[in-house]
Write a structure and sequence with these properties.
alpha+beta; nine-stranded mixed β-sheet; 29% strand; 18 helices; elongated
C-alpha cells in the first residue's frame, strides 16, 4: 500500500454510476463508483493514490451484494472499511452512511455492536406433562431423538393379505398384519421398513424341540409370564433368562386373533364341501361340466361327504368297483377347486369353519396332542400354518424330501392341540452372520407384528415407537403455534400410512366413527400443515441433496420444522481421510447452520448402534444422546435432546437428556409415556428418574 498522509474523512464506494449520482444529489461529495477493480487498484493490485488518500471507506450495497462488498473490503483493507445497505429512498442515503458498521460484525464485534435479541420466544410441546414440567422449545434449535429398534434377518417374513412375504422383498404397497399386545387383536395396515448394516450378525436361540429364533440383540418380543403377566423382552433378555438353571418363566406368543375381515360370499356348508374337495377330491377339468370326483375309504368320510352334499341339495352319483370294494366314489358338478389357500382372506368365523372341517378330512390326531395336515402344495401348507396360528394352535412345519416320481416335497403342518405358547428355554445360544450383511424391521402403529422366521416358526414380534411420538409432536407444534413442518418418508408411503396417522391426530376420534366430511377437513389441514420429503427412485440421497431440498421447501412452503426420520437412511459418503464421527459432526453443523439461517426447529431421529446399549437398558439404565449413531456429537451439538425406548417390563420411556438453557427451557427429566393404540399416540404418565426403578416419582 502507498505510504503518504491520509485525510481524516470517508470515501463512499458504490456499485454503479446511477447510485453515485444519487449520492451526490443528496449532498455526499466524496463518492466513487467501485464496480470494477481498476477504479480502485493499479495494474499491480495496489490502491490508487487518490483512493489511498482516504483514511476510511463506506461501502453501500443493495441486498444481495454482500459478496461484492467482501471482495472490495479485502482489496482495499477491511480494517478501513464500514458498510451499509443502500436504502430504498434516496433521501435516506445520508442516514445510511452515518450509520455504517464495521466489517465482519457477525464474527468479530464489541458488545455495543451486537444487537439486543429481545425476549427469548419459548413454545410449549403440546404434551401436558412436559409442559407442566416447564419444558419449552425455542428456535432456531437442533433436536436429535435417539431410540433403538431391533432388526431381523432378511429371510424373516411378515403376513400380507396375499400370504407370507420376506422382509428383504418388502415394497411400499405392502400391508402387514400388526398385533395389539393388550387385546390380542390384529389388522392389516401399511407398514414401513427400516434397513441397516448388520456387521455383527444375529443371536440364534434354540430349544430342544423345533423352536429357533434368529434376531438382533435389541429386537423386542412380547412374552407371557407364569401368572399371565405380559412383558416385553429383547432377544438378549430371552437368551439370558432362557439359559438359567430354573428356566426363564416366560413364554413366547405363537398365536393371534385373525384380522376382522368380512365374510367371503360362501355359506358354511359351501366352505365345508370345498375343504372336503381339497382333501380327497379330484377335478376333471377337461369335462364341460367341471365334474368333481371324491374317492374315500373310511365310513366316517363317506357319511360326512353325503351329509354335506345333501345339505347343499347338490345332486351326486355314488360308484363302487368290485376290484376295490373299500373305495366309494362320489361324482358331482361344482365350482370347487383344490386350493385351501383361497380362504386366506376369510373372516374369523369362516376360518374357524375351515379349521373345524379339516379335522374331518386331512387333519388327524396324534396322541391327542397334535393335529397334523399333510399336503404337497406349499401354498396350502403356508395357509394352514397361518390358519392354525389364527385359531389358537401353535404350528410347526416339517418338510419331507421330494417324491422320486413327482419330484414334489410333502409338508406336514402340525397344530399343537394343548398350547398357544412356547416356553422361552434354550439349549443353545450362538451367533450367526447375516446372509446379505443387512438387518430389517417393520414400523407399525401398534409396535408389534406377526412374523414367520422359517416354516413352522410363527411368532408375534415388535418394533420401536419414536416415529409415532415424532409425528404427534409435529401435529402439536402445528396446532399450538402454526408451524408448518416437513417430514421425510424414506421407507414409508405417505398414502395411506402417514395420511392415516395424521388424520387420527387431527380428527381426534377412532377411525370407525370418521365421516367423509371429517376426512375431507383433515386432509385439507394436512395440506396446509406439512409437506413430505420422498426419496426419488434410483437416486442417491446424500447430505448435499438432502440439505438442498430442505432449503427449497423452507423457501417455497414456509416450513418452520424439519423432521428427518431416520438419519440412518441417508446415503452417507464419508470423505477419504475423515472419520465417521468427524463426518457426522460436520453434517450436524450443516443442519444447524440451515436452522440458524431460517429460524427452524431441526429434528433428527436416529438409532443407537451399540450392542452394549441394550445390555445397559436391561439394568434400568438410561439411554442418552451419547448413544446416538456413530458420534458423540449428537449430545455435544444438541439444543434439545430426547431419547425414547421401551423398558423390559413394558413402559415406554422418554428421557429429556439435554436442554440448552435450564433457566428458560426447563430441565432434563425422565417420563413414562403411555400409548393409546386407538389413536396411535402417547400421553405423559409418571415423571422423575425414580420411575425407572418402579417407584413413584417425586
Amino acid at each position: 500500500m502507498n505510504v503518504h498522509s491520509k485525510i481524516d474523512a470517508s470515501l463512499v464506494l458504490v456499485l454503479d454510476e446511477t447510485t453515485a449520482q444519487e449520492c451526490r444529489a443528496q449532498g455526499i461529495r466524496s463518492v466513487r463508483n467501485a464496480s470494477a477493480p481498476e477504479m480502485l487498484l493499479d495494474s499491480e493490485g495496489r490502491l490508487l493514490p487518490e483512493i489511498d488518500f482516504w483514511s476510511q471507506f463506506v461501502i453501500l450495497i443493495p441486498p444481495g451484494g454482500e459478496h461484492l462488498r467482501d471482495t472490495i473490503a479485502v482489496n482495499i483493507g477491511d480494517e478501513r472499511c464500514l458498510w451499509s445497505y443502500l436504502p430504498d429512498e434516496p433521501q435516506n442515503i445520508q442516514a445510511a452512511v452515518a450509520g455504517a458498521r464495521r466489517m465482519w460484525l457477525d464474527e468479530i464485534a464489541r458488545l455495543d455492536d451486537i444487537p439486543d435479541p429481545g425476549p427469548v420466544e419459548l413454545f410449549e410441546t403440546g404434551f401436558d406433562g412436559l409442559d407442566r414440567h416447564g419444558l419449552r422449545i425455542t428456535t432456531p434449535a437442533f433436536m436429535p431423538i435417539v431410540g433403538p429398534y431391533g432388526p431381523l434377518p432378511g429371510y424373516a417374513q411378515f403376513h400380507t393379505p396375499s400370504g407370507w412375504k420376506r422382509l428383504d422383498e418388502w415394497t411400499e404397497t405392502d400391508l402387514a398384519l400388526v398385533y395389539d399386545f393388550e387385546t390380542g387383536a390384529t389388522k392389516y395396515e401399511q407398514a414401513g421398513r427400516v434397513v441397516a448394516d448388520a456387521p455383527d450378525g444375529f443371536l440364534r436361540l434354540r430349544n430342544g424341540g423345533t423352536t429357533e429364533i434368529v434376531a438382533c440383540e435389541k429386537h423386542r418380543w412380547p412374552v407371557v409370564g407364569k401368572l399371565g403377566a405380559k412383558k416385553v423382552l429383547t432377544t438378549a433378555d430371552l437368551a439370558e433368562a432362557g439359559q438359567s438353571e430354573h428356566g426363564s418363566g416366560y413364554s413366547l406368543i405363537r398365536t393371534f386373533d385373525p384380522p376382522p375381515l368380512p365374510d367371503m360370499p360362501l355359506t358354511d356348508d359351501e366352505i365345508r364341501l370345498q375343504v372336503a374337495v381339497c382333501a380327497d377330491g379330484s377335478i376333471r377339468e377337461k369335462m364341460v361340466n367341471n365334474r368333481i370326483c371324491v374317492c374315500v375309504r373310511k365310513e366316517r368320510k363317506k357319511e360326512r361327504l353325503a351329509q354335506l352334499l345333501d345339505a347343499l341339495n347338490r345332486p351326486y352319483r355314488v360308484r363302487q368297483y368290485s376290484q376295490r370294494p373299500t373305495e366309494t366314489h362320489f361324482d358331482f358338478d361344482g365350482n370347487e377347486d383344490k386350493r385351501l389357500s383361497q380362504f386366506r382372506n376369510a373372516s374369523p368365523r369362516q376360518l374357524a369353519v375351515v379349521f373345524d372341517e379339516l379335522q374331518h378330512w386331512d387333519g388327524h390326531i396324534y396322541d391327542d396332542s397334535r393335529l397334523v395336515l399333510s399336503t404337497s402344495d406349499p401354498a396350502d401348507a403356508e395357509f394352514c400354518e397361518y390358519l392354525f396360528s389364527a385359531c389358537g394352535k401353535r404350528a410347526s412345519v416339517f418338510v419331507q424330501n421330494g417324491n422320486p416320481e413327482t419330484q414334489r416335497d410333502n409338508y406336514l403342518v402340525c397344530a399343537n392341540a394343548k398350547g398357544a405358547l412356547t416356553r422361552a428355554n434354550w439349549s443353545a445360544v450362538d451367533r450367526v452372520p447375516s446372509d446379505d450383511g443387512k438387518k430389517y424391521c417393520l414400523t407399525t402403529s401398534t409396535g408389534f407384528f406377526v412374523c414367520r422366521l422359517s416354516p413352522g416358526q410363527v411368532f408375534v414380534t415388535g418394533n420401536s415407537g419414536k416415529s409415532v411420538f415424532l409425528r404427534q409432536l409435529l401435529i402439536n407444534l402445528w396446532r399450538l403455534h402454526g408451524w408448518k413442518f416437513l417430514i421425510t418418508s424414506f421407507e414409508e408411503r405417505v398414502k395411506p400410512r402417514f395420511q392415516r396417522d395424521l388424520r387420527r391426530h387431527l380428527i381426534g376420534s377412532v377411525e370407525a366413527t370418521w365421516t367423509q366430511d371429517d376426512i375431507a377437513k383433515a386432509d385439507a389441514e394436512i395440506n396446509r400443515a406439512c409437506v413430505f420429503f420422498r426419496r426419488k427412485r434410483n437416486t442417491a440421497l446424500d447430505a448435499d441433496r438432502l440439505i438442498d431440498r430442505i432449503e427449497y421447501a423452507v423457501r417455497a412452503y414456509g416450513i418452520r420444522v424439519v423432521a428427518i426420520d431416520p438419519f440412518n437412511e441417508i446415503d452417507h459418503v464419508v470423505p477419504r481421510g475423515m472419520s465417521k464421527t468427524d463426518y457426522v459432526g460436520a453434517f450436524i453443523m450443516r443442519l444447524k447452520q440451515l436452522a440458524d439461517d431460517y429460524n427452524l426447529l431441526m429434528i433428527c431421529a436416529l438409532h443407537p448402534p451399540k450392542d452394549g446399549v441394550e445390555k445397559r437398558l436391561q439394568k434400568n439404565g438410561l439411554l442418552t444422546l451419547n448413544d446416538g449413531a456413530d458420534s458423540a456429537n449428537w449430545g455435544n451439538k444438541a439444543d434439545i435432546g430426547l431419547c425414547m425406548w421401551r423398558n423390559i417390563d413394558g413402559p415406554t420411556f422418554l428421557h429429556v437428556d439435554k436442554v440448552k438453557d435450564h433457566e428458560t427451557m426447563g430441565r432434563p427429566v425422565l417420563c413414562e409415556m403411555i400409548h393409546d393404540p386407538a389413536f396411535n399416540r402417547f400421553r405423559v404418565g409418571r415423571m422423575g428418574h425414580d420411575i425407572l426403578f418402579g417407584d413413584d416419582a417425586e
